[in-house]
Amino acid sequence: MRDYEAPEPEVQQARGEQRVLLPVPLQPLRHGAGNPGGIRLWLLRVRADDWGPSAIPEDVNEEGSAHLAIRLATETLAKTADRSRRHMERENAELLLEAAEYIANLLEAGQYVPMRVPPTARIAAYRRQEHPNLDEIRTWLYQLVQQLREVCCILGSGESNSRI
Questions:
Q1: Which of 7, 46, 58, 103 is deepest in the core (most CB within 10 A)?
Q2: Tell me: the pLDDT tens digits for 36-49?
């Protein structure tokens, strides 16, 4: 039995697109046994681009994850470029996609990539292909590495300059 009424969905027009925001009820706030005021909590709906310039961006390299991801990607790019592994197309593709997924997760967590078509969805599409284009995957992985270096302020030698 619900002892609250959910508000109507809110429809917003923003930048030419229509969004419907649905409130999500939390557990009612109880003060004492009876909750005499009937106080209810609702989740705030905040989008990253609504925060403005005062928002502090997520530091995805806080524990050295970006350094580790870049090192893994660099080693994978070198390993899969070896001529002795050219016949292992599927295995090379999986190694490249694993490295790309690690970087993509960091970029998505820090909200540094547009989520209309997230990089992880692109990785899933590559994995579904029977014969993925290794050159295309390698080029895209290189671009992901460069993007992660840029957002984390990582120099080519692996040194970093924290932006916060």
A1: 103
A2: 544 443 334 444 44
Distance separating alpha carbons of residues 43 and 12, to the nearest angstrom: 17
7: three-class secondary structure by DSSP: coil
For 143, the 3-state DSSP assignment is: helix
Half-sphere exposure of residue 145: CA atoms within 13 angstroms, side-chain side: 23
Look at residue 9 in the predicted model and tell me its pLDDT. Answer: 54
Nearest of 111, 122, 131, 136 to residue 49 by alpha carbon: 111
C-alpha gyration radius of the chain: 22
Read off the tokens for 76.
């994978």
Predicted confidence (pLDDT) at residue 31 exceeds the cutoff of 90: no
What pTM was computed for the model? 0.62
Distance CA 41, CA 120 (A): 33
